[in-house]
Design brief:
- By secondary structure, the chain is mainly α.
- 67% of the residues lie in helices and 0% in strands.
- The protein is built from six helices and no strands.
- Helix 5 runs antiparallel to helix 6.
- The termini are far apart.
- The relative contact order is 0.11.
Length: 162
């Protein structure tokens, strides 16, 4: 009687050892699930632009407060968002003209690197104008971006910490 459960256990382990590993199938399933999530939950152009608008505003207050580390961070976030747009929104006609923003971003990044507030303000104005030119080119002229006049968020201090 005691032999029967032992034989069943041994047969179970032998049959388990005889199966082929399902690693490849599992990896394929995971990859497919990840792609499905990316496809379902990817941000649209409007969400990207809203994020850029917030970073644009925060960039302004960082620059006029000579908080160059924060300004560098914010312009990096803007660049990252534009890269995301180009990678995700490949079928949108508006994306074909998005590279017009790169030269003003580069000039503004240079002003930040130089810690030059005068150049920063000038290049920020050019960047803002370029945003509006892109909007006009793509028939979104009703979406006018301006230089911020009020803090974008009330829970952040834009001054430099010593």
């Amino acid at each position: 009687m005691k032999l029967v459960p032992s034989i069943v256990i041994v047969l179970f382990f032998l049959s388990a050892c005889n199966q082929q590993p399902a690693k490849d199938k599992t990896a394929e399933n995971l990859a497919a699930q990840i792609q499905e999530i990316k496809d379902k939950y990817r941000p649209g152009l409007g969400e990207y632009m809203l994020g850029i608008q917030l970073h644009h505003s925060k960039l302004w207050f960082a620059g006029i407060n000579n908080n160059w580390k924060l300004a560098e961070y914010e312009i990096g976030e803007i660049k990252e968002s534009f890269d995301g747009i180009k990678n995700v929104e490949t079928d949108r006609p508006e994306v074909k003209t998005i590279d017009m923003i790169q030269p003003p971003l580069d000039s503004l990044a240079n002003a930040i690197t130089q810690k030059d507030e005068v150049a920063f303000k000038k290049q920020f104005t050019i960047l803002t104008s370029t945003c509006n030119n892109c909007h006009t080119t793509n028939k979104f002229e009703f979406n006018v971006i301006t230089i911020p006049t009020a803090l974008p968020v009330t829970n952040q201090d834009f001054t430099v910490r010593q």
